[in-house]
Amino acid sequence: MGKKIQEKNFDVKIEEKNSIKVLNLEGYLDAYTALKFEELMGEIVKSGGYKIVVNMKNLSYISSAGFGVFMAFVDEVRKNNGDIKFCCLPKKIDEIFELLGFKHIFETYKDDDTAIKSFEKETRKDVRKGKKK
Amino acid sequence: MNSENSKIFEGKSHFIQQILLALGLSFILLAITLVKKVFPFSIFDFVSGIVVTALLITVILIVQPFANKFEKKPVEGIKFISIFLLPLVGISFAFKNFINLQKEGNLINFRSYSDIVLTNVYCLIYIFLASVVFSIFLKVLYFGRGREVKIKFVASLIFFAIIELFKGVLENIAFLPQILLIIQLLLFMWISFKIPWVIGLPKREKYKVLLYSFFAMFFSFLLQSPFITGNSSEAMKFYSSFLFSFTHFYFQPFLIVYLLFAFGSAIFHLPTTEIYERKVTELYTLQNIGKLVAQVLDVKEFSETALGIAMEITNSKSAWIELELPTGVEIYHSPRVDDEFKILTNEIDLIKNKFAMQNFKGRYLTENFEGKNILVISLITHGKNFGFMYLVKSDKMFDDDEINLSLALADQIAIGVENSRLIQELIEKERLTREFELARQMQNRLLSKFLPTSDKFEISVSFVPAFEVGGDYYDFIVHGNNNISVIVADVSGKGVSAAFYMAQIKGIFQSLAKVYPKPLEFLSKLNEIVFSQVDRKFFITLVYAYFDLKNNIVQIARAGHSPPILVEDGKVNYLKSPGVAIGLIQTDLLKKFVKTVKLKLKKDDVLVFYSDGVVEAMNERNEEFGYERLEKLLCEVHRKNSEEIVKAILDNVVNHQGKANQIDDITVLVVKWKK
Question: Quick one: closest CA in A to B584, which residue?
Answer without folding.
Answer: A71
